[in-house]
Write a structure and sequence with these properties.
It catalyses: citrate = D-threo-isocitrate. The protein is α/β, with parallel strands linked by helices and about 750 residues long. The chain has 3 domains: about 300 residues, Aconitase, domain 3; about 170 residues, 2-Layer Sandwich (Aconitase, domain 3); about 200 residues, Aconitase, domain 4 (Alpha-Beta Barrel). The protein contains 25 helices and 30 strands. The strands form 8 sheets. It has a 7-stranded mixed beta barrel with strand order 22-25-26-27-30-29-28.
Length: about 750
């Protein structure tokens, strides 16, 4: 029986009436996205039509999911909310703090010892407040959610940007910061600007070397890393129905890389098969009963341009495998063009490591197709040229692929099998030699490939591909190898060609597992004690941020003018810094250390306006804080792209940064800044970015009459005595302005 089946049944029981009322109000057929959103309104009663990209709306999500790195801060905030139990079903998943180095058993054992304090904290908080707890080694949050909690037509929020993975089972699942999760767990409404709608029509059927991963790699090339911002992407068409459920999950997962709020698919036979295979026939039976409401109205898909703001069409029959990168997940290159592009751009073509798995591509189908290629290594007399690693997404998948012989197959080609955790995908990879900073190439089936993300080496050229293509390129050891057309020379000197991969959508013998890793909370957690050692370097109870002083802000110093891509990895690095995710002051020592300073082209070196010297960013900001001087951060386009990590907003807030001014924001990061009482501002004229000088003192005027839709004015006081006055915009509504005035949204909740 599925988790929370009563909640799912209750949600479905409201669906028909809510959708009928919404259809009447909107006055036209509805997309699937609209059906789900209107069925999750906070007040439960569709009474008006909402403007896409315009109206802020309160929602009632069905559940909350948290991974261990972000759960620490989310639960530290929740502990201040005064509730005895979470208001909606919630879970914590221990997947981020396990370093991949040697092999799963050894790495997991080390992690359990090193992170005992954090795991004890998370398990005790979960036990106290009625939160389901998934132990270290149970698997990656998004894979575990897909296997256990996702359901068609549901709405979920999660403290990780790849929460969107659950769209593979027809959910609207959205990545958020911990403060948003805290609100929902405390029984408060969750606010989101009504999204725009992008439709992707899939025709044809995948064949040969092409996989579901190639769909999203192509879409990323079309929309870029910010083309989906503020929108939900809805996939449909005969090609969508032909995809496996986990293939759909892969596509939705990497929708985070185009900035989309989330992505989703209508309920179909593949979802039913997956639900039944993962022991949730009760959910499948319910979904079948409400099937008409779990996809768009027929008129929508018949004439999509009338109902979506943008429509993309992809023919799966002719789709070619893609390899995206380096350094950004939207630089899309068809496999047939990779050799040419690598030569033109000077990319290293020797593949040092191929890595498959992660939350994006660790399904049974993914692993079985990669294993079919690994079997050909010995059968065709080949030898794998690159290192090769596998990161299973869950213990359910790992146990099953071991039973079915796939792990033995991988071991035979010299592969390492890491723990069921994020590992190399998020920088938790102790890669031998990475400290030498040598120029090299790796290929992986993960979702992100930002500079230095996987191994800490800024000179590692990371490329994203499907598990199949990643495996083939690891066997060949050559980025320019095209398995569709090229041959390899085996150990006998013979020319051989790899056969296209084959695999099973779901295990023929069914899934199996001895211990999935789940720990249920106490029925009554009132007696559970949660203790945080005041001297801990890993955990720190939160103190409230100060309320706004009620005046305009004068004399702010420029901390940094960031140049080019500035993701949450640049603002608050992961990897070894993950161990401080529960200690705000300690993790603040990584503030913006990866951002490139516009004025000298260097990272972690900015001018300290007090001393006149160039110093590390955190050190400079701490000097300003010590003297009570506020500061401002200036950024480029799509600032805060990437992870949902709210530390990228909490760190500057903690150290005294008052405002972040950029050309444009990524959605989650802008919301996180607002939640923490920061000013998130955008240039009214993007060319004004060029007016910001290194020694500027900056005034922000108009705050005493801060209003929704009313621009603010910045005065740039230059060192030479001259001034520039520029206009800046914001997207704050009345409630969010109150967050700013109170010092943070959490301060209002406590009040």
């Amino acid at each position: 029986m599925a988790f929370d089946i009563e909640m799912i049944a209750a949600r479905y029981s409201k669906m028909e009436a809510a959708i009928a009322q919404a259809r009447k109000i909107v006055g036209r057929p509805l997309t699937l996205t609209e059906k789900i959103l209107y069925n999750h309104l906070w007040d439960g009663n569709p009474s008006k039509s909402f403007g896409r990209g315009a109206d802020y709306v309160d929602f009632a999500p069905d559940r909350v999911a948290m991974q261990d790195a972000t759960a620490q801060m989310a639960l530290l905030q929740f502990m201040q909310a005064g509730r005895k139990k979470v208001a909606v079903p919630s879970t914590v998943h221990c997947d981020h703090l396990i370093t991949a180095k040697e092999e799963s058993g050894k790495d997991l054992g080390i992690a359990v010892t090193e992170n005992k304090e954090v795991y004890d904290f998370l398990s005790s908080v979960s036990n106290k407040y009625g939160i389901g707890f998934w132990k270290p080694g149970a698997g990656i949050i998004h894979q575990v959610v897909l296997e256990n909690y996702a359901f068609p037509g549901g709405m979920m929020i999660g403290t990780d940007s790849h929460t969107v993975n659950a769209g593979g089972l027809g959910m609207v699942a959205i990545g958020v910061g911990g403060a948003d999760a805290c609100d929902v767990m405390a029984g408060l409404p969750w606010e989101l600007k009504w999204p725009k709608a992008i439709g992707v029509k899939l025709t044809g059927k995948l064949n040969g070397w092409t996989s579901a991963k190639d769909v999203i790699l192509k879409v990323a090339g079309i929309l870029t890393v910010k083309g989906g911002t503020g929108a939900i992407v809805e996939y449909f068409g005969p090609g969508a129905e032909a995809l496996s459920c986990t293939g759909k999950g892969t596509i939705c997962n990497m929708g985070a890389e185009i900035g989309a709020t989330t992505s989703t698919f209508g309920y179909d036979a593949s979802m039913e098969r997956y639900l039944r295979s993962t022991n949730r026939s009760d959910v499948a039976d319910l979904a079948n009963k409400y099937k008409a409401h779990l996809t768009a109205d027929p008129e929508v898909y018949a004439d999509p341009s009338k109902y979506f703001d943008q429509v993309i069409e992809i023919d799966l029959d002719t789709l070619e495998p893609y390899v995206n990168g380096p350094f950004t997940p939207d630089l899309a290159t068809p496999i047939s063009k990779m050799k040419e592009e690598a030569a033109k751009n000077g990319w290293p073509t020797k593949v040092e490591v191929g890595l498959i798995g992660s939350c994006t591509n660790s399904s049974y189908e993914d692993i079985s197709r990669a294993a079919s290629l690994a079997k050909q290594v010995s059968a065709k007399g080949l030898k794998t040229k690159a290192e090769f690693t596998i990161t299973p997404g869950s213990e359910l998948v790992r146990y099953t692929i071991e039973r079915d012989g796939f792990i033995d197959t991988f071991h035979q080609i010299g592969a390492k099998v890491f723990s069921n955790a994020c590992g190399p995908c998020i920088g938790m990879w102790s890669r031998v030699g990475a400290d030498k900073k040598e120029k090299n190439t790796i290929v992986h089936s993960f979702n992100r490939n930002f500079q230095a993300r996987q191994d800490g080496n800024p000179n590692t050229y990371a490329f994203v591909a499907s598990p199949e293509i990643t495996t083939a390129l690891a066997i060949a050891g050559d980025l320019g190898f095209n398995p569709l057309t090229d041959t390899l020379t085996n150990e006998k000197g013979e020319k051989v060609k790899l056969d296209p991969p084959t695999g099973e959508e779901l295990p023929n013998k069914g899934f199996a597992v001895e211990d999935a890793g789940y720990v249920a909370p106490a029925a009554d957690g009132s007696g559970v004690q949660v203790i945080v050692d005041p001297s801990s370097t890993r955990l720190q109870l939160l103190a409230p941020f100060k309320a706004w002083e009620g005046t305009d802000l004068k004399g702010l110093k420029l901390l940094i003018k960031a140049k080019g891509k500035c993701t949450t990895d640049h603002i608050s690095m992961a990897g070894p810094w993950l161990k401080f995710r529960g200690h705000l002051d300690n993790i603040s020592n990584n503030l913006l250390i990866g951002a490139t300073n516009f004025f000298n082209g260097k990272t972690n070196e900015v001018k300290n306006q007090i001393t006149g010297n160039y110093e590390p960013v955190p050190q400079t900001q701490r000097a300003y804080k010590a003297q009570g001087i506020g500061s401002i951060v200036v950024g480029d386009e799509n600032y805060g792209e990437g992870s949902s990590r709210e530390h990228a907003a909490m760190e500057p807030r903690h150290l005294g940064v008052r405002a972040v001014l950029v050309k444009s924001f990524a959605r989650i990061h802008e919301t996180n800044l607002k939640k923490q009482g920061m000013l998130a501002l955008t240039f009214a004229n993007k060319d004004d970015y060029d007016k910001i000088q290194e020694d500027d003192l900056i005034d922000i005027n108009g705050l005493t009459s801060f209003q929704e839709g009313k621009a603010l004015t910045l005065v740039l006081n230059h060192k030479d005595g001259k001034k520039d006055e520029i206009q800046v915009n914001h997207t704050y509504n009345a409630q969010q302005i109150e967050w700013f005035k109170a010092g943070a949204a959490l301060n209002l909740m406590k009040a």
